[in-house]
Specification:
- The protein is built from eleven helices and 14 strands.
- Helices cover 32% and strands 29% of the residues.
- The two termini are 32 Å apart.
- The chain is elongated and about 70 Å long.
- The chain has two domains: 192 residues, no CATH class; 115 residues.
- Helix 3 packs across helix 11.
- By secondary structure, the protein is an alpha/beta fold.
- The strands form two sheets. The protein has an eight-stranded mixed β-sheet, sandwiched between helices. The chain has a six-stranded mixed β-sheet with strand order 10-9-11-12-13-14, covered by helices on one side.
């Protein structure tokens, strides 16, 4: 639910500075941390960044959710040092037409004191009346020689996202999450549709790998011949992931030669155990069934494609949010 009174800018950590004083504020922040802590950056190398990362918090974001996504960005930046800019819309139409800024930095020790990683954030709050100044300010905060990745989180209108042309046309990747996006998020006429990635698809990486590895043991014709139905039963909370997984299966089985099979999603009863159950229905005696339970992190394959029954255990989990972010960005 959209909460017009939400102030996600105030909820996020950081030291408020003037917009014109961001660079000076960051320099002073690191100088003070260096004097106070052994985990502070000892040299510019520990703050060397590899990518520009813009997290744009949409109008459906709550303060609590903003904090969750902030931590996802922190964890991702520990894996891939980034220059992170977080954009926070002010929904109060009477807000003054001015930008507000916060800065935040944090350092982490690795396996030794010499292995040091530092993350650096600029958080910008903007009312709609200051929209025309926003992208110019973002461009100043980014490093011009690094690739740009743009994550639009919890927007309710994709046209509103596409309006930020500097970000959506320059970004190497435009990231959305179909679990928290409008129904047309993936089919929207993006300026660069080839750059759009769905975080729900990325979260399914391990499942797609294990399914693909198991099914690739069999010839494509064996999988496709006589296939009548593909049914994916899912926990109700996993409907977005189930939709993505079924679409992926339809594409892969279509490449195997299956053109006439029906693909169906069926929700589990509320409270029923398990996450996913996938079954293939064949005209003959062939069979395939895969079950996955994220609570136990366990999956099971049961199949008979004409050479006798096969049973195989496998792992089952969704990628952690920061890992899914990395997968969506770079692959």
């Amino acid at each position: 639910m959209i909460n017009p009174a939400s102030d996600i800018f105030s909820a996020l950590p950081g030291l408020e500075v003037s917009v014109g004083g961001i660079a000076k504020g960051l320099t002073q922040m690191w100088r003070e941390q260096t004097a106070q802590s052994e985990t502070a950056p000892g040299s510019d190398d520990s703050r060397a960044t590899q990518v520009n990362f813009v997290l744009h918090l949409g109008p459906a974001t709550t303060p609590e959710d903003a904090l969750v996504q902030f931590q996802v960005a922190v964890k991702f930046s520990q894996r891939c040092p980034s220059r992170v800019v977080i954009l926070c819309p002010q929904l109060n139409r009477d807000a003054p037409a001015e930008l507000r800024a916060k800065i935040y930095g944090e350092c982490f020790l690795g396996k030794s004191k010499a292995d040091k990683r530092c993350v650096e954030f600029v958080i910008l709050s903007y009312p709609r009346t200051a929209r025309e100044f926003l992208e110019n300010q973002v461009s100043i905060c980014l490093s011009g020689d690094l690739p740009l990745y743009y994550w639009a989180h919890r927007f309710t209108n994709m046209a509103r996202v596409a309006d930020y042309r500097y970000l959506v046309t320059r970004a190497n990747r435009i990231l959305i999450d179909s679990a928290h996006a409008p129904a047309d998020a993936l089919s929207y006429a993006w300026p660069r549709p080839e750059a759009v990635r769905d975080l729900a698809f990325s979260r399914l990486l391990q499942l797609r790998q294990t399914l693909g590895q198991f099914l690739s043991r069999y010839p494509a014709a064996t999988l496709a011949d006589g296939l009548k139905t593909v049914t994916l039963t899912h926990a109700p909370a996993l409907l977005p992931e189930a939709r993505v997984l079924l679409a992926w299966l339809k594409d892969r089985l279509g490449q195997c030669g299956s053109q006439d099979a029906g693909f169906t999603l069926v929700p589990l009863a509320a409270g029923a155990p398990g996450s996913f159950t996938l079954t293939f229905g064949y005209a003959g005696k062939k069979s395939f069934r895969w079950t996955a339970d994220f609570a136990t992190r366990h999956a099971q394959f049961e199949a008979d494609f004409g050479n006798g029954p096969t049973t195989l255990p496998a792992p089952a989990s969704l990628l952690a949010p920061d890992s899914a972010l990395s997968e969506a960005m770079f692959f």
